[in-house]
Design brief:
Blueprint (H helix, E strand, L loop, with lengths): L4 E6 L4 H12 L2 E7 L14 E3 L5 H10 L4 E4 L6 H6 L1 H22 L3 E7 L22 H20 L2 E7 L1 E3 L17 H10 L5 E4 L11 E2 L1 E3 H16 L5 E5 L5 E2 H12 L5 E4 L8 E2 L4 H7 L8 H16 L6
Parallel strand pairs: 1-2, 1-4, 2-3, 4-5, 5-6, 6-11, 7-10, 8-13, 9-14
Antiparallel strand pairs: 9-12
């Protein structure tokens, strides 16, 4: 057995997965990335080996679990675009739900009992109250959100029937990049607000569309809870430690409890880069709530975790530095 504790990280070549592999390695774990590289990047696998395979290949999964003497799994691998899921729900059921079930079955066959699941605040749908705590009713508005809730439900029933330990971590809006510049956000196409605003400001993407300026918010634009990706990574390590120490299986919100509007994000990007963010106003998108902010007190109580790097300035600055390093774009002033 390795002196360090081996953990299989599905989607370890992706954005949040790679940051979590770095945090795991720093905490004495041995992260083994399992990724088919359909969305991830081989360069992002820097803190342990890469197993290039598909989660629906049960033989490959079980071989990885066995050969690397895996003690727990952190499951990131999934497709994560709400709009795409509305256009092609079949793909989201295959790539998110079927793969999760296949992974759980491979874990059962291999005797691996503990899993941390990458979930989403999208399981709540249109919030009836803000901030949103874990007792808020679930009601996904997209196949993506439904796929995450289906994954959580599978964990709950597998846990009950097969004595598996699990944590479902419901992220709010992941953003930012590793402060040392070792890894960061690199999607194609890029649709998330912070990187798109940076790209629009430096001229490597068209002007940004601001969807909705008539929300019942102070400046009329939608408000979201942005959490630094490195804070998310540390939460996964804390969740793994808690599960190993006997903490009961449960779902937990990961957020800051502080929301920022679209206009506030654009202002912060402009200040960081010393240039305006070209944008145009557009109608609201169907199903977009006015405000989505986390109540993450339970994560602090259960895990001893809270967001420490998630000021909007830190999120934007680290993201801009990453873009400058990785894409050769102008960086923060």
């Amino acid at each position: 057995m390795n002196e360090t504790k081996p953990v299989l990280v599905t989607g370890g070549a992706g954005y949040i997965g790679s940051h979590t592999c770095k945090a795991l390695a720093a905490a004495g774990y041995h992260p083994v990335s399992f990724d088919n590289l359909s969305l991830g990047h081989e360069w992002a696998v820097q803190w342990g080996p890469l197993v290039k395979a598909d989660l629906l290949d049960a033989e490959a999964v079980q071989r990885a679990l066995r050969e690397h003497q895996i003690q727990a799994v952190i499951h990131f691998a999934a497709s994560a675009y709400v709009g795409d899921s509305m256009r092609d729900p079949a793909w989201y059921y295959r790539n998110n739900v079927l793969t999760t079930l296949a992974l759980l079955d491979s874990m059962r066959a291999s005797g691996v009992k503990d899993i941390i699941f990458s979930s989403s605040c999208s399981v709540y749908g249109n919030p009836s109250r803000v901030p949103i705590d874990e007792s808020h009713p679930t009601g996904p508005l997209s196949p993506y959100g439904q796929s995450k809730l289906d994954g959580e439900n599978a964990l709950r029933w597998y846990g009950q029937a097969y004595q598996m330990g699990w944590m479902a971590l419901r992220y709010f809006n992941a953003a930012g990049a590793d402060a040392a510049g070792d890894t960061g956000e690199d999607h194609e196409p890029e649709t998330r607000l912070v990187p798109r605003a940076i790209m629009a400001a430096v001229g490597t993407a068209p002007q940004l569309e601001v969807f909705g300026t008539d929300y019942p918010t102070p400046d009329g634009t939608a408000i979201r809870d942005y959490i630094h990706v490195s804070d998310l990574a540390s939460a996964h390590v804390s969740a793994l430690n808690a599960l190993k120490s006997g903490t009961p299986s449960q779902a937990l919100n990961l957020g800051t409890g502080r929301g920022y509007s679209v206009r506030e994000v654009l202002t912060t990007v402009a200040q960081a880069l010393g240039r305006d963010v070209p944008h145009k106003l557009a109608p609201r998108r169907a199903g977009d709530p006015a405000e989505v902010v986390a109540d993450a007190r339970r994560a602090k109580e259960v895990l001893g975790w809270s967001a420490k790097e998630s000021t909007l300035e830190s999120i934007v600055t680290t993201a801009a530095r990453w873009h400058a390093k990785h894409r050769g774009e102008p960086g923060p002033k």
